[in-house]
Fold this protein.
Amino acid sequence: MEKGNDNIVAQLLAHNPGLAEVKDCNGNTALYFATQKRIVAQLLHHTSEIHLEHYKRSPLHGAAKRGHDDIVARLLAHSPSLIDTLDCYRHTPLHEAARGGHIKVVAQLLACKPDLINMQDDYSYTALMHALKERHDDLVAFLLAHEPSIVETGQPLHVAATFGSYASVERLLSLKPSLCDTIDQLGRTPLHCAAAKGAGEIVAHFSSRSKPGAKRSWLSCSPTAPP
């Protein structure tokens, strides 16, 4: 099913339409794995209800994760409510698309529901923060252009300092320079994060932007938990 053979899918469904609703050991039906629009259409025709798998992921999560924009469109046309599904970690389909760096799918989902851009998962990560973690710089630029205020949600600069690129750090600071002095739940600034990862270029960038008092607060701050 990962590659997709629509002729064989059609043959199997003609023999036993009930196969479309059979779940594997993880609770997935064939629809979750479908990678061709024609196969999705055949499976939906024989599906009375779209099921969530054991981790509460929907087929839309799967299509968004793999970047299949045509399948995303087909699923949303059939069941618009899928856009609101949350898995057991409160990941939305937008989170999955952002983790994969799929700009076209991200744009599709935001066109359907703009508020998704501010949704946070169980780790307080937004779609922007997932894009930063995975170093999808083009997607980061797209999300910031789409909704600049997203920098106010969560702690994107901490994520960028830990996992991201210099370019993404610069984009965030150009929108809101004061992010440089934000503190996370462990008492850490973005500088702590960059220093821990050995990101010398980013450390130098923060130091050049900060006020002297802010530098001292970075050095004297005691995290409330071990690294």
